[in-house]
Amino acid sequence: MPFPFSYVCDLLQRLEDNQRGARGVLRGNADLLREWFGAHCSQFLCRDDHDDAALLSTLLPEKRTDRIYLIREKKLQATVGRALGLGVSRIMELGRWSRPGSGVDLAECVEGVLKETPNPISPANQAVTVEEIDGLLHSIASACRFSSPAVRSSAAASSFIETRLTDRELALGNLYTRLSSRDAKWLTRLILKNFEPVVLDPQMVYHAYNPVLPVILKVQDDFVVAGRILASQRRDRTVVGRPNLAEYMKPTLGVKVGRQPWIKGRSIKHCLDMGHGRMSVEEKLDGEYCQIHIDLSKDRDCIQIFSKSGKDSTRDRAGLHGSIRESLQLGQPSCPLKKGCILEGELVVYSNKDEKILDFYKIRKHLSRSGTFIGTDQDSQTHHWEHLMIVYYDVLMIDDESLLAVKHSERFQRLKQLVTVVEGRSELVKRQAIDCDRPSARSDLRHAFAKCITSRGEGLVLKSDDPYFDFDSARRPYSCCAIKLKKEYVSHFGDIGDFAVVGARFDAAKSRFYSIPNLKWTHFFVGCLENKDEVVRFRRKPRFVVTNVVELNISQLETFVTFVNPIYVPAEENDAISLRIEPGIDDGKRPSFIFPVPPVFDLRCFSFDKAGNTGFWSPRFPMVNKIHCDRTYHDTLSFAELQDMAVKEKELPPPEDSQELLGWIAALENADPKSAAGHIASQSTASQLSERTMSTPATPSTIRSECGQSQVSPSLPISRGNVISHIRSHSAIVQGTFGGPLTPPRSSLIRPSITQANSPERATNRTTVTRGLKRPIESPTKTAPDRCKIRRCSNDPAMSVVVPLSQGEDTSPDSSSSQREPLLDVSVSSSRRNTVASSSAVPPRLCGSSSMYQLEHVRAPPPKATLHRAHTASISFSGVSTTLPSRPETSHHNYPHVKDRSRLDHPSSTAAAVAKLPSNNTVQGGRGGQRCRYLPETCTLSSYFFLLSPCIADYPWVTEDLLSCHGVTSYARHPKEWSSTTTTTTTITTTANDGNEEMALQTAISTENNNIDTRRKQKQKRKRKVVLVDSRRKEATAAFLKSTHAAQLKRRNGEREYVPVFDWRVLEALREEEERCGKTSTGISGEREREKERERAGRLAMGGGAKSLWKKFWVGLA
To answer: How far apart are CA 927 and CA 937, in angstroms?
Structure first.
């Protein structure tokens, strides 16, 4: 029975209204899908004559990669205008989508036109059905040579009588005359294969449609074939469950099998957490995916190749057929196959001359796209020593025997028996096995990954010894998944440098995704200066080479529009800068606007590539790391520097020595989130880490935010001399040079590297950093740690190295360090501190980089005595709170030396030791509590009450470095704590035992009397509330702000309270500015001093106007 298209539009419109919150309450898409399918199940979906493929193709048009219409916005606009007979004024209204800032797409323009003059409704106009639209679109696609062979061959069997493409497009236009304005909007988006802002999750649609449909599409990834299976079940009245269906179904030759889920590994630890048991670690090749079907019943045409998208690419990859025939011995008596097989592999280009696999960009001149070679205008001609090669890595079926339920190790053994390796033509993927359950697994994987990086490989693929698919609903998480591990996924190894943003263009469909009013830009053209020396020295007209086009996420684009908002001119009026834009940039699209003074983006990428029709190296898959408001295009990479960086990355041979390998091993070890250096089999450090540390997610944003802290292994003997020498060498490296691109950060975990850093040979090899170049050119013989991209570390001399200490461990320091006793455990009434105190060890932390460091051994408190005291002051809450230990400015020798360690376990000894703490360890500021370390008289940061989102509340760099150096000794972790805030108090709590009540009471009274003036001053003025988040973690920030909204914060008068939200990196900017001002404020007198003071106050104040540092990090209001 035909399915009315208006019912599909009902669902899509409900989803769009729900996403915009038009009805007040947001609901999940899954609930709306289930309701919609349930409402139409009995009447349409369960009937024998229902066309499942047509409905699925309508709901998920982007999945029909086999259909190519060659219809975009401009062509569709002309078709609709002719069909509706629009005049000049209404055609202008229909084309409003192309004007930047309009905020509408073509679909909404069509809707607006039909709302003004609706189509007449008559009995002759039958309702448009899903089957009718699907048949018409299939007919249009069959006339396009870029469609799959199966679609093109079905043109003769089509039920439509139109024989010319123009007739089919005319029939498409006639559909608009029979639709309402709303339905015409969704038909427009269906033809363009883009329902944005509505985005449907395919798996969610499959589950709501039929519980067994996801299983069917895994085995046979084709809507038409899956529809036939569902129809046969309805016709035969058979109901098959998921486990039974897995046994019932098997792959079919000629129908693509779905791929395993692929997951990105963010660190060594992250990969091992997702894996289990024995894992296959395979080399990842930079080629094109191939699923090869061999059907011996078709004689010479027995080879069929599917691409990753599911398109039949057999003809385009004809150059690979010879290699496949040789490897499988097709047509020979020794062929191991009887009926056929299904294999997976990677297509690459091999050079007999160089005896190696060539770069990815070499593939396009050997492969056509539907008979056309695309992007090869500036490529060299094909050489006779270059040819296509296949690298096999899996087998899914052999002679009607499905191997989808067979473990990976067994499948690979079957693959080895099947394939004959031919040098330069075919081979098996290089692999090794690692047992995740062994203590040495982390070290083995780290070594394998470092070896892959130094050999200039793309990365690794990790596969557990699981079946290809597991259809059991109770399967283990991450089972049957392939884990991709590339160096660009780990920490900030993919950072390349700053690029100038020279122009932008507007895409109407993409603008609907952002939902930003009056948005003018969606795609940004970034490039490098071609005449950087002339511009810097002689102020010549800048000449830029556009290298890439990038997009921003929502928060980044809002920041760019709000705070950067550069001056722009139409492209035809630009005379300020010269642009060189090759034809291959952005598929020939050109910028609509040019920025005469280009802003600056910090980019990261996966690798370098020569894009089609460009002829130069450019970042591959670039992403914007940061938007710089304090840099100009003079500070960006030059075009020559970018090319040299890419050549070093792609073309230099691997080094013969092992120094780079050791450097990468150390860097990867340091990149593991919250990991100690000594993840060695003989050590138990990992088990001693606190729960908070081990549960930190391994995401790039968290790692990037914590890069200011190095980590020191408790298992390594650390002396004061070694620490100081390492810190001095680390500070010196900041003024050194960094070589090749995409290199690891300097590791602080390996003692040989510390010693080596102080050697005179290394000191003499350093050169000066070129301005704006993050990785200047240097000799490739230098080791990887020397070519690092240095991250900001704390320069505060009061920061310290914290070394974990287990219960039974000897606490005597190294003989080379000054003798001192361990400090008493300083704990507070916070969930975070309680977590740390309850574990057997505190995670190691290198908090800064200065010439002097303090080694503080933190010991767990005795069970019967709990001490709640910060070095300066503590803020108490009725709920959960957090108090930061303030850094003492006096020497550590001022602390009392407790000679009898056993007495520390006694409550009286604990209280007595606290009572003997010298008073000069507490810095009393004018506002009560600790004063700012840089501007003690004028810094107002301690007058703010900060609420930290969970993703940054556990960053010691934020809580113990940035906040404490400004005199901020407390913060909140949940908005409910704000409503229960009391005045500042300092509380000492001990267990009443052995007559200690009187002593504890006297101590508390004395402390309370000392803080009376402080409490009076804080009662006079209420602290201003400020929220700090990590704006790069978009989903986590949104969830946290929702909880802030739910807290219902109110002022004293009962009105709703709105709190400003900033990115936590404002603390770094304020710290740098205050430190600079503190150093340069002396020596200025009179009116000039007052002017400088006013200017400085404007930069540091939250409401200081356009020059305020706070404005650059504004996120919103909560």
So the answer is: 9
431 DSSP β-pair partners: 282
Side-chain half-sphere CA neighbours of 630 within 13 A: 11
How many angstroms separate the CA atoms of 462 and 1093, rounded?
58
Bridge pairing between strands 623-628 and 600-604? antiparallel
**CATH code given to domain 499-650:** 2.40.50.140
Closest to 511 measured CA to CA, from 554, 559, 566: 554
Q: How many CB atoms are closer than 10 A to CB 1106?
A: 7
Instruction: State the span(s) of the chain assigned CATH 1.10.3260.10.
Output: 5-228
> Which CATH number among 3.30.1490.70, 3.40.50.720, 3.50.30.20, 3.90.550.10 corresponds to the domain 260-285+431-485?
3.30.1490.70
Q: Which among 244, 154, 214, 183 is positioned nearest to 7, based on CA atoms?
A: 183
| Sheet with strand 800-803: strands edge to edge | 845-846, 800-803, 854-857
Q: What is the DSSP letter of 896?
A: P
Peptide bond into 197 cis (omega under 30): yes
**Rounded CA gap, 908 and 917, in Å?**
15
Determine if the pTM surpasses 0.90: no
Contact 948, 971 (CB under 8 A): yes
CATH topology of domain 5-228: DNA ligase i, domain 1 (1.10.3260)
Nearest alpha carbon to residue 1065 among 978, 952, 913, 968: 952
In this model, does residue 346 exceed pLDDT 70?
Answer: yes
Say which CATH topology domain 286-428 has.
D-amino Acid Aminotransferase; Chain A, domain 1 (3.30.470)
> Are 1105 and 1098 in contact, with CB atoms under 8 Å apart?
yes
pLDDT (tens digit per residue) in 953-1001: 877 778 877 887 877 877 888 777 766 554 343 333 333 444 445 554 5
Asked if 775 contacts 821 with a C-beta cutoff of 8 angstroms, the reply is no
